Amino acid sequence: MSTTNQSKLNQLFSKVPQVTIFFWIIKVLCTTVGETFSDFLSINVGLGLPLTTLLMGIAFVVVLFIQFRSTKYIPLVYWLTVVLISVFGTLLTDNLTDGFGVPLEQSTIAFSILLAATFLLWFASEKTLSIHSIYTAKREAFYWLTILFTFALGTAVGDLYSEQLGVGYLGTGIIVIVIIACVFLAWKLKLNEILAFWIVYILTRPLGASLGDYLSQSKTNGGLALGATITSVIFLIAILAIIVFLAVSKLDLISKEKATPTIEPKDNTKRVWTQTISVIIVFLVVGIGGYIWWNQNIVPEVDSSQTTLSGQLNDFITIEKGILDNINGNNVSTAKSKADDLEHDWDQNEPKLRKIDRKTWTDIDGTIDEVLAAVRTKSPDVNKCKSVIQNSLDVLNTSNQ
User: Fold this and answer.
1) Distance between CA 72 and CA 376 in Å, rounded?
2) What is the mean pLDDT of the chain?
3) Distance CA 201, CA 49 (A)
4) Distance between alpha carbon 192 and the CA centroid of its chain, in Å?
């Protein structure tokens, strides 16, 4: 290799950070922000899912372009890209679920396939999935595409278990922590480090999302009621502080020795493939088995003769009428409080109602999201609130007949 090419290669060795404890801390912080900041823009600011997705998509593409143009690892640019891809990945799943009515089970399967395909194409092309080898544009493209799908998949899995199956935010977070601990133990017992890294990377998404929801959601929803705004600000400040620390200390720069690509021995490659297949089987068995068991034993039983939501929606109609009365009476604070009650009761009954009539539940869920977004804005538009609440009541009343 010529001196010039070697120099260029050395410059590109540090496109991504070293995996240290700071890496995982900031990764969880970023995923938490991905959950809370998307809610903040969509609901608190009142932009709605489509506009929020468009704006965050544009911001993500711009920052990603800057990341690709850089010739070395720049903490601020790299982690800003992670924050934005976290938000965009979250919104991607949310749009499929709330905007197009795609079941979380289907989103989980789809993103799992896309992630697996990305890994396979990456390995087939580059013969490695190590983040220590991200020194070409192609590898970096595979890297960011993989990360996008990990965030989208993590959102789908997290929402599936925490909300749809009723495990709850805290419960889901605890489950993920236990799994991560098992992976750490397996790594200590010679699980391939690259395989272990990507497993944990995927799992930190539902962990961060559960943490974000637990901190931001109201107490009636099982959270600490910090709100999306405060939670986002706290975590963004924490992220910025760590980025500044890393930029100054340079503790997360990948050394030249670690960045230099190595060829895995043939027998080691076979061992990695064996471990990978074993891990996939374990996750499929535990994930699908857990889903089936929880769905059959924990989710409320439904009368087989109940095939519609008729008679099941009285409480939600009452709450929405109360919200409308308070909006008409210019009592915004009480309306917002009742909006919290509406969200809590709707989420609590989600497993049961979904089981009865998934399509109708999805339609109603969309109108309730519009009500929550309109009422929870800083300065609610009275006419808009009345319009979306009345629309939601019409859908509820029709479905309740």
Assistant:
1) 42
2) 84
3) 26
4) 26
Q: Residue 139: which of 148, 151, 126 has the closest Cα?
A: 126
User: Using an 8 Å Cβ cutoff, are 388 and 48 in contact?
Assistant: no
- Whole-angstrom CA distances from 330 to 30, 326, 370, 392 are 38, 6, 19, 20
Give the mean model confidence (pLDDT) for residues 173-185. 92
Identity of the amino acid at 21: I
Asked whether the predicted pLDDT for residue 6 surpasses 50, the reply is no
pLDDT tens per residue across span 122-141: 999 988 888 888 888 899 99
**Can you give the three-state secondary structure of 269-281, one letter per residue?**
HHHHHHHHHHHHH
Structure tokens belonging to residue 70? 């850089």
Structure tokens at 51: 């506009």
For residue 298, what pLDDT band results from cuts at 50, 70 and 90? low
User: How far is residue 206's CA from residue 74's CA, in Å, rounded to a whole number?
Assistant: 26
| Measured distance CA(84)–CA(147) in Å, rounded | 11
CB-based contact 380:374 (threshold 8 Å): yes
Size (the chain), residues? 401
71 alpha carbon, distance to own chain's centre: 29
**pLDDT tens digits, 211-222:** 877 887 777 666
Q: What is d(CA 227, CA 230) in angstroms, rounded to the nearest whole number?
A: 6
Q: What is the 3-state secondary structure (H, E, C) of the chain?
A: CCHHHHHHHHHHCCCCCCCCHHHHHHHHHHHHHHHHHHHHHHHHCCCHHHHHHHHHHHHHHHHHHHHHHCCCCCHHHHHHHHHHHHHHHHHHHHHHHHHCCCCHHHHHHHHHHHHHHHHHHHHHHHCCCCHHHCCCHHHHHHHHHHHHHHHHHHHHHHHHHHHHCCCCHHHHHHHHHHHHHHHHHHHHCCCCHHHHHHHHHHHHHHHHHHHHHHHHCCHHHCCCCCHHHHHHHHHHHHHHHHHHHHHHHCCCCCCHHHHCCCCCCHHHHHHHHHHHHHHHHHHHHHHHHHHHHHHHHCCCCCCCCCCCCCCCCHHHHHHHHHHHHHHHCCCHHHHHHHHHHHHHHHHHHHHHHHHHCHHHHHHHHHHHHHHHHHHHCCCCCHHHHHHHHHHHHHHHHHHHC
Q: What is the dihedral of CA 43, 51, 348, 371, to 10 degrees?
A: 60
C-alpha 189/C-alpha 267 separation (Å) is: 18
